[in-house]
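Protein modeling request. Please complete all fields; requests missing the sequence field cannot be processed.
Requester role: graduate student
Desired output: 3D structure, token encoding
Chains: 1
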Amino acid sequence: MLEDKFYRPLGKTGLHVSPICLGTDNFANPTTSEESLAIINCAVDNGINLIDTANSYADGRSEEIIGQFFKESGRRDEIILTTKVYYPVGNRGINDKGASRKHIIKACEDSLRRLKCDYIDIYQTHRVCMNTPLEETLGALSDLRSQGKIRYAGSTTSPGWKITESSMLAEYKGFIHMVSEQLPYNLLDRRVENEILPAAAAAGLAVFVWSPLAMGLLSGRYDPSKPETFDTPRFNRGGIYAERITQKAAAVGQEGNAKAAPVWMLRLLGLFIAPVRETIEMLYEFDDDFVVDSSEFTAHFGMEATPLDEALAAVMAFEA
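Delivered output (320 residues):
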């Protein structure tokens, strides 16, 4: 288990979480239930106490796998559990999406059933709903907290002005305060530094980082000398990072960016809460693949520490 001194405070709450969060976007799609359960057990046994999921991941099956883990292990109280609401699950009509009061309350009840527990630690809006007044969204979340179904609320991929609006409504109208913001942030995509990170800091929010390896582009899998490595679904279907798969970016990845990117995140934010979307084989190789600027932390995991400046050298020379 991870020693207590390595856990970080989560924003302005009294919670303490591991520097790494286990993300579950791949659970049940394509990772099998058996493999997913092995991943959870491995992560929790090694001290990760923060698990992030969403009701829409694999149409709810990701939550069901986590619920199976809680039922079989009896370790619910050890975990800070976060899930999300916004996207539809199944085909239940026009109102089965967004951040309306109706959808939030029904989605929360469905998530609790799938997760086999009676409360969610941090309930997050998966996206900003421009069609719903923020007062309605915050009001529904406030009621869920009063009912004991959630402990805290958070947001995901929000513009800076929405973070500020939410904070002001909570302050002056008595709604629930958001405690976290989950956003995309990595060495290839640093746009959040302009407005969103300052807004989150001003509101006292903890920051959850998703896609710290730019959906795999910083993992070292793309080799400029091997064109076949670029033949992947992520590259072929396009997307926010596909156009950034360049010879230079691939070369940076080959220079150990998979190790340097988390180190960079830890140094910059002081907190690396990033969903880990790995197979069980990759998770068991955690000791070899994750390097941080702490001899005690690396010693805990049996890792050979790499000097931070050397690990970052290739990365910081790359201009995203």
